[in-house]
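Box 3.1 A note on notation
Throughout this textbook, protein chains are presented in two layers. The first layer is the amino acid sequence; the second is a token string describing backbone geometry. Keep the layers aligned when reading.
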Amino acid sequence: MQVGLQIAQFNFPGGERAVGPTFAALARAADDGGFASLWVMDHFFQIEVNGPAEQPMLEAYSALSFAAGITKQVKLGAMVTGVPLAGSVSLTISPPLGAPTALKQQVDQQLRLELFFSPDDPPTLPLNLTYQPLDAGRWLVYLERAQAGPVLQQLDMARGHDFRLYSATLEDLYLHYAKPAA
């Protein structure tokens, strides 16, 4: 049997100054204690069942990135994530993506490409890539670092207005692998 630890409250003794050190101690204890996974919620405010909305609530992907930097083996995950899909929001349970070392390697290899084309003329991409509409005339593509040069060379920028290429984040990995809720 595998056991995971969910940290759903951040109102630790010592107030706001204690949140970082206490969360770090809990993450290290989960890692050192052999827990299979460590979970936080992706909520803007505390949920009613756990306490008032005013209780401290960490942003999930920042907390998970912090935990990734101080743990070695425990898998990290966000319990529920709001995933934007073509203008609507869908909730999904996010799987843990792996141990911190593997996550860091994945993030290092992923890029986030934002494309700006006329809203009625989306970009044409290689068959192995798909884009996600963000706004009218703005699309998002996740790709491997090695794909960036060939993909940018294939884009018909005579039709496009601009592009932005960023390093991926831990949140990008979760959103990339998240599946829409049924």
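Residues 84-93 have pLDDT under 50 and may be disordered. The two ends are 28 Å apart (CA to CA).
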